[in-house]
Each structure stands twice: as C-alpha cells, then as structure tokens.
UniProtKB/TrEMBL annotation:
Keywords for the protein's UniProt record, in alphabetical order: Nucleus, Transcription, Transcription regulation
Annotated InterPro entries: Aminopeptidase_N-like_N_sf, ARM-type_fold, Ig-like_TAF2, Peptidase_M4/M1_CTD_sf, TAF2, TPR_TAF2_C
Gene3D superfamilies tied to this protein: Neutral Protease Domain 2, tricorn interacting facor f3 domain
Transcription initiation factor TFIID subunit 2 TPR repeats domain: residues covered: 646-1004
Function (record text): The TFIID basal transcription factor complex plays a major role in the initiation of RNA polymerase II (Pol II)-dependent transcription. TFIID recognizes and binds promoters with or without a TATA box via its subunit TBP, a TATA-box-binding protein, and promotes assembly of the pre-initiation complex (PIC). The TFIID complex consists of TBP and TBP-associated factors (TAFs), including TAF1, TAF2, TAF3, TAF4, TAF5, TAF6, TAF7, TAF8, TAF9, TAF10, TAF11, TAF12 and TAF13. TAF2 forms a promoter DNA binding subcomplex of TFIID, together with TAF7 and TAF1.
Matches recorded under PANTHER family: TRANSCRIPTION INITIATION FACTOR TFIID, TRANSCRIPTION INITIATION FACTOR TFIID SUBUNIT 2
Places the protein is found: Nucleus
CDD domains reported for this sequence: M1_like_TAF2
Domain Transcription initiation factor TFIID subunit 2 Ig-like intervals: 526-644
Assembly with partners or alone: Component of the TFIID basal transcription factor complex, composed of TATA-box-binding protein TBP, and a number of TBP-associated factors (TAFs), including TAF1, TAF2, TAF3, TAF4, TAF5, TAF6, TAF7, TAF8, TAF9, TAF10, TAF11, TAF12 and TAF13. Interacts with TAF2C1. Component of the TFTC-HAT complex.
Gene name linked to the record: TAF2
Listed name of the protein: Transcription initiation factor TFIID subunit 2
Length: 1199
C-alpha cells in the first residue's frame, strides 16, 4: 500500500465509530456494470464497468482491483488513458517446471498466491497506474471515475452458460446463464473490489435478446427495447450499499410469476415449469412473516427475486435481494419427500438475505457470526414449522456431524486470528490447507464450519436467553438500516458490517452477561469435548456416584471446564443436577430422592409432567434409578459415551419423551441383543404417537438385534407381522393395501420397514427366503391408482430393499458367473431391476429416484459376485445429458469400481471428466467421492500409484482448476488423501534433476543439463507466488535505493515483488535480445494469449493492447517465436526451485545449520541478482505486438 497521506486524522474520521479500518487507500461509493453483449453460441460477454472512488490518502498513484479471467481492453480514469498491470499468481501456483510434488509446499505457495491478490489485504490482480495529470486532483482527495472495458470468453468459473444442444433459437432451447461461485467470486465475471467489506451502490445494465429476461439485484427501473426490437436492456438500481461479492445475474427465457401473497416478490423459472414454480413458492410468504416477526424488523430490500436454474453450482445461493436455486428443487403437490427439503432451502436463503447479504462482514474471521446467525434463525423457523422434535433431531444430527468431523480431522476453528502473537495459543488444526482464507479451505471443512457456527449461536442463546439474542439481532439490523439510508455519507456504511468484537459488545450491552469464557472455548479455539460417563449407586448413603472422564488428548478434542447438566429419572420423578466440571475432579455424588419403594402401585412422573405406569420388574431391586442422561440439552459441543444397564436404556427408549434420548437409547440397545430389547423396540414401532424418525431408527436396530439373536429368535422374521398388520389386507396378508400416503408418519414407516427387513440374515448368513418373497410381493402388488401422492420414493426404497437382501455369491468349482447359471433368487432381483430401469425410460419418475436406486443395486450385485463386474453401464449413465442425480449415482459406482478392481483406466476416465465435464457440481462431486472412497491411500501400496498420476493431479490443482476455488480445494483434498503431505512415495528420488545448492539456499537445475545460453540467467530467482511482467515505468515510491535490497526469501507479497522489479527495469528497453534465447527454452516461455480462459496457465499479463488471437501459443509459427519468447523473458525460472526457504522441502533439514551462513551470502546473492536483472532489464521488455497494431502508441509503454 502506498505510504499514508499527510493527514491521518482524516482517515480515522472517515471510518465511522465502529473503527473499521479499510485496507484500501480509497473508498468505493458507486459502481456501474454494463454488459451490452451476451453471445450464447460463443459463450462470451462484452461490457464495461465504472467505479466511482474517493481517495482517502494523498499521493494515491496505484489502484488495485480484482479481476480474474476477464480480458481487459482499456482503462480510463476521468477520461484519461491509464496504464495497468494484470497479474494473477493463482493461475499457476507453483511454476510448472518445478519438480516439487509435496503438498506442504503447495499449500504454502497457494496461501501466498491467494493473499497476494486478496482484496481484504488491499491487493488485487489488476494494478492501475493513476495518470500523472491527475496526481494533483488526487492529492485534493477529489473523486476518480475508473472506466474499464472488458470481455469474457468461455468463462470457466463465475458465470455458467447452459446451452442445451437441441433445435431452435437460444430462447426456445432454454439456454441461460447465471453467476455462481464460492465465497467472493464476482471478480470472475467483472472487474470490482471483490471484498465483503467494500460496500457501494450499484447501477446494473444488461442488454439481451428480446426473448430473454435478465434478473439482477435491486429494483428493475426500466426495460428499453432497441430500435429494431430485437434486443432489450434491463436497468437495475440497487440503492442499498452492497459488496460486489453479493452481486449476481441470471439471464434466460424465464417464465415470470409475481407472488400472489406479496407483490414485491417475483419468481422465475425455465420454460414449462410454471405450475411447479407456483406450488413450490406458494409457501414463501410464511417464511417472510416468520423472520420479520422474530427479528421485529422489515425485510431490508424493496424486492426479492427467486430464480430456479439448471446445472446449479450449489442448491441455494443468496445474493443481495435475489437468490439463485437449483431447478431440481421444484416439485408438484404430489411429491412428499422433496417438500420439506425445498422449504428448508427457501428458508435458508431468506435468512441469509438478512445476515450475509444485507449485513455483511468486516473480514474472513468474522464469517462465523453471519453464518451462525443465519443458521440460528433458520433453526428457529424449523422449530416453528416442523415442531420441536424435528428441531431437536436436526440439532443432534448437526452435532454428531461436527463431532465426527473434528475428531477425524483435528478441529474446526471459527475465528482464525491473524495477529502476530496469537499464533502460539491457536495452532492451525489443518495441516493440508490454510484456514486463513476462504479460498484455500476444503469444501467439507467449510460446510462443517457453517454447522459449528449455528451450534455455537445456540450455545450463546442457552447462556443469555432467546429474548436477548433476538434483541441483539434487531439492534444489528436497525443500525444497519439506518446506515444504509445515509446516501451521501459513505463513511457511515461500515455500520452494515458485522465483526466478532462488535457482535460480542452488543451482546454484553443488551444482556449484561459476560460470555467471554464461552467464546474462548468454542470460537477462539477448535475441538470438541469427549465425555465418558459411568456410575454406581451407593445404597447406604442413597447417593448416585457418577464418574465423568474426559479425553482431551486425541486430535480434535479439547478440555471442558464448566457447568454440565445431568438428568436423573428416579421412581419419584425426574431431577436435574448441574455439576461443575473442574480441572481434575472425576467423581460426583448426586443425592437420590426415592427410597426405592416398588411395592406401592404408584404412577411415575416424567420430565414433561405426565405420569405413567411402568413395569418395574426389570429394575435393579436396590436402586431407584430408571435412567441417567448427561448433558440432555446438548449445551456443550460434545460426544458422550455413557454406560448404563440394558434395562435402563429400554426404559429410556420407552418412556423418555425427548427424541434425542430415544435415539441415544436405540443406538445403545444394538449392544444388548436380548428379548427385552426386542420387545422395547417393537413397542416403539407400534406407538402411533412416537416421533417417526425414532420409529425409523428402531427398524434398523431391530434388524441388527435379530441378526445377533438368530439362533434363539422365535416367530416370523422381525417386523413382518407388524408390517402385515399395518399395511396389508386383512383377508390376504401377502397382498399390500392400495397406497394411501395421507398420513406421512405411516408413509415413512412403510417405506423404511422393508429396507430394514432386507438386512435380516439366517443361520447361513443369507437373507431368509420369506423376506425376499415378501419384498417381491410388495413390488408386485403395489397399486398407486387411488393415491393423491406419488409413490416414486416408495418404489425406489423397495429396490434398495432388494439390494439389501443380496449376500455374497458362493462359487462352486470357481465357475465363472454368467447370466445363465444365476442363483434363482438373484435372477428374480435382477429381473425386477431390469423391469424398473426399462419402465423409467418410458415413464421417468420424479428426480429419477428409481433409476438411481437401480444403479446402486446393480453395483451391489456386481460387488457380491453375482453378475460380472463391469463399469460400462455406469459410464453410459454418467455421460453429460442425463439428470444430475443419475450421473452422481453412476459416478459413485465407477469410483467404487476403481477402488475394488484397481482400475487405472477408470481412474483416468474419472479424472478426464473432472477436467472436462460441463457441469461444475459434477466435477466437484467426482473429486469429493474419490476423496471419500479413494482407490488407494497414502499408507498402502497400490499399482495405481505412479508418477504419471502424481503429475496429473499436481497439474490439476496447480493450474487446471484456477477458475473454481471449490474445485481446486477438492483436488488438494484428493491429493492429500492419496499421497499425504510429503513427497509421494511412488516418485523417484530427484537425484539428477535437482542439485541442492546449500550455500545459496536453493535448488537449481543440474548444470550438466542446462543449455549454455541460460546458464547465465541462473541467478534470477523469481518469487513463486507471482509471475509478472512489468513495464518500464518508474516506481513512484522508490525514494532511495534501499527498496532494491528486498530479500527474496521473504518476498511473498506481490506488491513488494512488483516494486522490486520495477526498480530493476527502470530504463525503457529495446526488443533486440530475443535472438539470443535458445529454442529449447521455448516450451517454458511461450505465453498464452487467451488469458487463462482455456484453462492453460497464463504467463502473459494483459497490457491494454489488442492481442493477436492466433490459437493459444502452442502452435505458434516459428517466425513469431522470437517475438513471444522475448515477451516472456523475465520468467526465466527454468525448473529450478525459487529461493524461498519457507516452502522448499529440501531446506527444512538444513535450515538451522545454515542460518549463520545465510547472512553472509545474502548480500552476495542480492547483488548478483540485481546486476543480472539489470542486464536483462535492458533487453526484451517492451514487447511489440506481432500484429503491429496500436501497441506502439499504447500508453502503458509511454514512459
């Protein structure tokens, strides 16, 4: 950043009272985005942006903005041409010649590359030089208008084009385009300040074909047709200050529906889906009413738009005043299972409108507040809509997920602090990616992060009460809405940003409670708590001796000190005790109330006040305890393993009214296969008033118990008589009644029971014949004619049941399985599956649920050796063009096949798909599935693990996925799963290629294999995290020569790097030296013309000159060769490691011994470096454009 101006007081005053310090030397107040041409055939976009900025410091002469993959034609500031540098170090993280293949090195380089262009650090890919004519103007802190013309050609991220290959015009084909991305990804489709903390007002204009509709943020002011009526322009105004990261766009031939209940809400969907849209969104107004009521605050924007599009990046993406949803969420009134899921998506997106879009965050370390609040109020909506049982079940589910993830990976940190001293007490839990930036996070980590954030908000609510919690939210919202209406006082806008400290301050102001310990425990450090509880009843003293141990040494755990609630159900009622968990106290004495008196027939009072009769014969005669629960309210992020006798679990299952307790009891009873457990589970299954999810869980537990008791089991197979009684005809018990799904509870039970029954096994470990016949009968007699709901999910579950009944094939005399000698049971199953698959082709079910189940079932048959293992069927279903759920199911089977059969060919096929598939979600899922079910791992030998695979994956994460953060992080996760952190074991030792030059602290190419011509340039080490070329303009900040003494060990930030190089290249240069470049250095040097759009690493920054479009540099005619290599000259990093000691794995070992030597040699190294750079600096730098053209007059070279 340039040195601050002469008047620091002015800077501070500008920031408002909250003390938000902007990392930028200017304030953005307004931005215009105008896209005047969108071509669906070519998938290209042409337009311009105009940013209005006020300098906040004098002598501002560089302006940094974000822009990725946009081709920038010209930049003007107040109508004067301005020179600019375009440098994106994330395109290729480590230089392609580098022989490094260890993940530690990559992660550090990647984190450095991302922060080098991070707007929150005041950086950016695009560096614009303020023309000298405007310097005086800037010193007076007067307004600047920056006008940038840009285009996008076949974007690989940020904007996604969906162009179905069918007949007709683009509108008839349903072609559409929408913005997408993970976290702040707006820089992928127009130049901006891509930070959540830089707010401004917006004017958005989109010119599209007359048959198309453009939907964007804010109010639609007008639509204007062109003279020939072939095109129209949509003008949107967003008057509420908003960050660029919350700006979005969707263009397509949408059908439009104005919400009948709220006219300011509009819904858009693709052609012919209007009836589904009407039904799906008919519920939305209730969500609005709920949020506005609990937050006692109006919805902040003047309108709201929902757009349902195909090939969505995520199911729900919330942007300022509009949300983009996957079209697969749409459903008709006949669909049961999808309805709650879609409603949850709508509610989630609306919660994020308040916290996430309207209220934004100051920095990445405050992200948890927004995700936490939006997740928390969404939870309140769930509690109201689906009831307390569903809500508590969801909380338990989320808690189990985060606990499992943290114990597996080592922790999720909500509030990463980047202060100098803080690092010590706050070690980053994640070795294989940096958590300091959203774009380096694994996607799974990010989803777990969101999950933990809302659970922590719930812990805060437990501490200060819901009433205060909602008051805090209301306070945040009302401050923000006051600030947003201050049109000309942009320094007030920082009130719309939330920070951790601001949030905590407002909690203590509102509630007067100190929640610091809670924050320290759950927000400032990672890890969950692991409790082990066991007890003994002391009859003499009538006390319960409870022992609670903690494990805080395994990864992902932490020590808990504080209150812990324990609920004890005794004969006299239910009693709550709060124990104080101290440093080392394990034993706690809890006094009991009832002198055990079982002789009096008296009802037993439960937690919720109801009184029940119990059969107490199973109890221990000496103790009054029925059951004990540790932390029943889930007020700690914990995993509890508590030991109780089997009868206690059975009582807990039967009589405890909390669904979480019932589910805990069910999972505990799996360990007690006794007739009493069987009875308790069967009773729960029959109880109508029991929560349906508990009954579903009981089905599977009962199947497990039955399998453990197989030798002593009496009567028909588990659940069969119950199912017959509930769902079959009275007269003919093997025929199921015609479907009637009016009662959703019994519908879910009817779907689940057969799936669980199919898991039953007899003494020979086969599925009992009568169970299979029973399931086949259910399929055969299924009749949905009189049902008002669709039975597609039910039929899909019947196929899952068939798949569950399959057991491994017994091969006789090693005969090869063919379809002729199939086991008769398997033949029946296969016939059903085939019939279903063929039916699906004629009459597809909703979301193709049946095809998905059939594909899974076929894979099960293959794995069990009944049909020949062959991936070709799955590969055909995985092709682009099938419905996404089918593709994912088929790909999952291919991933599994790759693992089981160790097939290199299929792995290659999957990786090719990751690189080339048109749908970003599918590419992401393939990497995700390979990571979850890897073909091999770092700890095992595998024929699949070879050098080519390492190179392929390295290339993928290094440069092949630079257009999609989520994809790149997915590739990193896979690399970590397969090869671990250090150099992959299958690689040969780098003996010849690299020589360790310890004196200079870097590795270089062995001189014996270097062509002479380059050997001279050896010394020019270039920082790994940026590859730039710089034009010869004087560096405005270099007052002295000191700037040159930059130690290349520490240069990671591209600003220092750039100014260093600007110094080296001070004199204007002549393109005369190109002929000395040897031809064999060509491959490393040829620049790519299309700036990274075709996925190749860009080594050529764009100056504002027209670049010749002649292919991508790979097939350059030899004549142009000399000119291009000249252009790339400063990049002479020939396969040698950069000087950075921080990253190179070789240096770690020698680091300490060479500390002393290092100092001596540093100067030598620097001067050499400088001299060398100077010599080259005279050479090939002002590169002429081979096309002649305007580059000679190009202002960037005018110095």
């Amino acid at each position: 950043m340039p040195p601050t101006g002469s008047d620091p007081a002015r800077m501070n005053r500008k920031k408002g009272d909250k003390g938000f310090e902007s990392p930028r030397p200017y304030k953005l107040t307004h931005q215009v985005v105008c896209i005047n041409n969108i071509n669906f055939q070519r998938k290209s976009v042409v337009g311009f942006v105009e940013l209005t900025i006020f300098p906040t410091v004098a002598n501002l002469n560089r302006i940094k903005l974000n822009s990725k993959q946009c081709r920038i034609y010209r930049v003007r500031i107040n109508d004067l041409e301005a020179a600019f540098i375009y440098n994106d170090p994330t395109l290729e993280v480590c230089h392609s010649e580098s022989k490094q293949r260890n993940l530690n090195y990559f992660s550090n380089a990647y984190a450095a590359a991302v922060s080098a262009v991070d707007p929150d650090a005041g950086n950016g890919e695009l560096c614009i030089k303020v023309p000298s004519e405007l310097w005086k103007h800037v010193d007076e802190l007067k307004v600047l208008k920056i006008h940038i013309n840009f285009s996008l050609d076949q974007p690989k991220g940020g904007l996604h084009f969906v162009v179905p290959s069918v007949e007709g015009s683009m509108a008839e084909r349903g072609a559409h385009v929408f913005s997408c991305g993970y976290q702040n990804s707006t820089r992928f489709w127009f130049p901006c300040v891509d930070s959540y903390s830089e707010l401004c007002t917006w004017k958005l204009e989109f010119t599209v074909d007359a048959a198309m509709v453009a939907v964007s943020n804010g109010d639609l002011v007008e639509t204007v047709y062109t003279h020939d009526m072939r095109k129209k322009t949509f003008h949107y105004m967003l008057t509420i200050p908003t960050s660029a990261s919350n700006i979005s766009l969707a263009i397509g031939p949408f059908e439009i529906l104005v919400d009948p209940y709220m006219h300011e809400v509009t819904h858009f969907c693709l052609p012919q889906l209007l009836p589904l849209l009407k039904h799906t969104t008919s519920y939305l107004h209730e969500v609005f009413e709920f949020y506005e009521e609990i937050l006692t605050c109006r919805y902040p924007y003047s309108c709201f738009k929902t757009v349902f599009i195909d090939e969505a990046y995520v199911e729900v993406a919330a942007y300022a005043s509009m949300s983009i949803f996957s079209t697969n969420l749409l459903h008709s009134a006949m669909i049961i299972d999808e309805t709650p899921l879609t409603r949850r998506c709508l509610a989630q997106s609306l919660a994020q409108q308040f916290f996430g879009c309207f209220i934004s965050r100051m920095s990445w370390s405050d992200e948890w507040v927004l995700k936490g609040i939006s997740g928390y109020i969404y939870g309140l909506w769930m509690k109201k809509t689906f009831g307390v049982n569903e809500y508590r079940h969801w909380i338990k589910e989320e808690l189990d997920k985060i606990v499992a993830y943290e114990l597996k990976t080592g922790g999720v940190l909500l509030h990463p602090m980047f202060g100098g001293g803080k690092e010590k007490d706050n070690p980053a839990p994640h070795p294989h990616f940096s958590i300091k930036h959203p774009h380096t996070l694994s996607w799974e980590y990010y989803t777990m992060f969101q999950c933990k954030a809302h659970l922590v908000m719930r812990l805060i609510e437990n501490r200060i009460s819901m009433e205060f919690m909602l008051q805090v939210f209301n306070k945040l919202l009302s401050l923000a809405s006051t600030a947003s209406s201050q049109k000309f006082q942009s320094h007030m806008w920082s009130q719309m940003l939330v920070s951790t400290s601001g949030f905590l301050k407002s909690i203590s102001n509102v509630s007067g409670k100190d929640i610091q310990p809670l924050i320290k425990q759950w927000v400032d450090q990672s890890g969950v708590v692991k409790f082990y509880g066991s007890f003994a009843f002391n009859r003499k003293r009538n006390v319960l001796e409870l022992e609670i141990k903690q494990d805080y040494t395994s990864p992902g755990t932490q020590k808990y000190v504080g209150p812990l609630k324990v609920t004890v159900q005794e004969l006299d009622g239910s009693f709550n005790h709060t124990l104080q968990i101290e440093e080392n106290s394990l034993k706690h004495d809890i006094p009991c109330h009832s002198k055990s008196r079982r002789n009096k027939k008296k009802k037993i009072p439960l937690m919720n006040g109801e009184e029940v009769d119990m059969d107490l014969s199973a109890m221990d005669a000496d103790s009054p305890l029925l059951w004990i629960r540790i932390d029943p309210d889930m007020a700690v992020l914990r995993k509890v393993d508590s030991e109780q006798a089997d009868f206690m679990w059975q009582y807990q299952l039967r009589y405890e009214r909390d669904v979480v307790a019932q589910q805990e009891a069910i999972s505990a009873l799996e360990r007690f296969p006794t007739p009493a457990s069987r009875l308790a589970l069967t009773d729960v299954l029959e109880q109508e008033q029991c929560f349906y999810r508990v009954r579903m869980a009981a089905c599977f537990c009962l199947a497990k118990i039955a399998n453990s008791m197989v030798s002593t089991w009496t009567g028909p197979p588990a659940m069969k008589s119950l199912f017959t009684r509930m769902f079959c005809c009275k007269t003919c018990p093997n025929i199921v009644k015609t479907n009637n799904f009016m009662s959703f509870q019994s519908y879910f039970l009817q779907k689940t029971m057969p799936v669980a029954m199919a898991l039953l096994r007899d003494v020979h470990n086969l599925c009992p014949k009568e169970v299979l016949t029973f399931i086949l009968d259910l399929i055969k007699y299924n009749d949905n004619r009189k049902n008002k709901f669709s039975d597609n999910y039910y039929r899909a579950e019947m196929i899952d049941a068939l798949a569950n009944s399959v057991t491994p094939a017994v091969s006789v005399n090693n005969e090869v399985r063919t379809l002729d000698n199939l086991n008769p049971d398997v033949r029946l199953i296969l016939e059903e599956i085939t019939r279903f698959l063929n039916m699906e082709k004629l009459l597809p079910s909703y979301r193709h649920t049946i095809t998905v189940s059939c594909l899974r079932a076929i894979r099960v048959l293959q794995k069990n050796g009944h049909v020949p293992s062959d991936p070709s069927l799955f590969k055909s279903y995985a092709e682009y063009g099938h419905f996404v759920d089918i593709r994912i199911a088929a790909l999952e089977a291919v991933v599994d096949y790759t693992k089981v059969d160790r097939s290199y060919e299929e792995l290659q096929w999957l990786l090719t798909m990751v690189q080339n598939d048109p749908v970003p979600y599918v590419r992401h899922k393939i990497l995700n599935m390979l990571t979850k079910n890897p073909p091999f791992t770092k700890s095992m030998e595998s024929p699949l693990c070879n050098e080519a695979l390492v190179d392929q994956l390295w290339k993928l994460m290094n440069s092949g996925t630079s257009h999609d953060w989520r994809l790149r992080c997915g590739a990193v996760d896979l690399y970590f799963t397969l090869f671990g952190l250090s150099r992959p074991s299958c690689l040969p030792l780098p003996e010849l290629g690299l020589v360790l030059n310890l004196k200079e602290k870097k590795a270089v190419l062995n001189p014996t294999i270097i062509p002479e011509a380059i050997a001279g340039n050896q010394e020019a080490a270039v920082n790994p995290s940026s590859h730039t070329q710089l034009v010869g303009f004087q560096n405005p900040f270099s007052s002295s020569q000191d700037e040159e003494e930059i130690d290349m060990d520490t240069v990671h930030d591209s600003q220092a790097f750039i100014s260093h190089h600007l110094n080296m290249l001070e004199r204007p240069s002549t393109p005369g030296l190109s002929k000395y470049r040897p031809a064999n250095s060509r491959s490393a040097l040829i620049p790519q013309h299309s700036a990274g759009c075709d996925g190749t690493p860009t080594t050529k920054p764009q100056w504002n000159m027209e670049l010749p479009r002649k292919g991508t540099g790979k097939e350059q005619p030899p004549l142009e060769m000399s000119v291009h290599t000249a252009a790339a000259a400063p990049l002479s990093v020939f396969g040698k490691e950069p000087a950075s000691s921080k990253h190179s794995e070789h240096h770690h070992h020698h680091h300490h011994e060479h500390k002393k030597k290092k100092k001596k040699h540093k100067h030598k190294h620097k001067h050499k470096h400088r001299r060398d750079g100077r010599e080259r600096g005279r050479g090939p730098l002002a590169f002429p454009s081979p096309a002649g053209g305007r580059s000679a007059r190009s202002p960037s070279l005018s110095d």
